[in-house]
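Example 235.
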Amino acid sequence: MDTITLWFGLGLLGELLGTTVLAYGYTLVPEATRRRYLLLVAIPGIAVVAYVLLFLGVGTISVGDHTVYAVRYADWLLTTPINVLYLGLLAGATRSDLGKLVGLQALTIVFGFAGALVPGPLGYGLFALGAACFGGVVRLLYRGVADAAAATLSDLELSLYRTLRNFVVVLWLVYPVVWVLGASGVGLMDVETASLVIVYLDVVTKVGFGVIALNAWTTIEEVTDPSEADGLAAD
Ligand code: RET
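Predicted structure in complex with retinal:
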């Protein structure tokens, strides 16, 4: 097995384990938030499918002297808009802001994918468009959507919103850096290293996001649901 396939295999295990833990967590979160919580299970769940395909070597496109992993972009195209949708729903954002979040995040990935397929300055131009769309997502998460969160949420929920948002913004910024350093950009980072970094980040961002939310919701459930509090006291 070559190194990259090994990384994809480890990614698959990580996403599988994460999906299992988060699916179990469904029973622990407050009933009112369960429907929305399913989004958090779907995110690593979709990645399981993507990593099976990557592991099997399906969905690669050869562009000049490098390989573009189309399945990876397909995964991101589905999962990153779900991720920002969850943040928007948590914040109680307006429908228009939810639409902007999802649309801009999807365009970020589409432009990044197109840029990886096209060599030279046009490729960087497409990358820049993707980066601009992502800038729009970050702006919304720190302005309009954050204002909605501050206006509608309890202290605990607001602190969850801020934690998840900062987690997303900081970790996601590594992806465009890898795009530029890797084969789609200047080629300073070899394809094995780039794959390792992306696999690691994919697992941490997807599973970590869900686990932070799960942890916060079980705490919120305990402090707000009197029957749970009784249960705790009896323990
Ligand atoms: C690209 C290139 C174009 C500019 C930007 C990018 C950002 C990608 C991001 C990916 C996040 C992926 C995640 C996957 C989880 O498994 C498309 C690389 C800004 C933010 C979180």
